[in-house]
């Protein structure tokens, strides 16, 4: 096991600084989004909503991601990832904050849709930026 970790460390050090920063950012980003998703579902359940409401919120997030994916790619091509990524990250921050603060059923559904679209647009831009 120690040999495996040592080999990974040596391989990681061979990458350029930009690649290492990109990998670090993606690790932190996905860790944060994953933790938010888990804790948020438990939070909604603790507010007294049924399990089906949690399913509706997860579904709305997925539907928004599917709808926003192509327009986000087009915007990314038109304006470039260096402009779209900060905007997308700001939108994600605003959407996740709204999801955490609002408690009504319709507000939760709307912010789940908004959050899914924002996360998708930010992720699409980051993916495109890594390929450039």
TrEMBL record:
Name this polypeptide is given: MFS transporter
Compartments it resides in: Cell membrane
Parts of the chain that traverse the membrane: 21-43, 55-75, 84-102
UniProt organism field: Paenibacillus gyeongsangnamensis
Mode of membrane association: Multi-pass membrane protein
Alphabetized Pfam families for the sequence: MFS_1 (PF07690)
Principal location listed in the UniProt entry: membrane
Taxonomy, superkingdom: Bacteria
Record keywords: Membrane, Transmembrane, Transmembrane helix
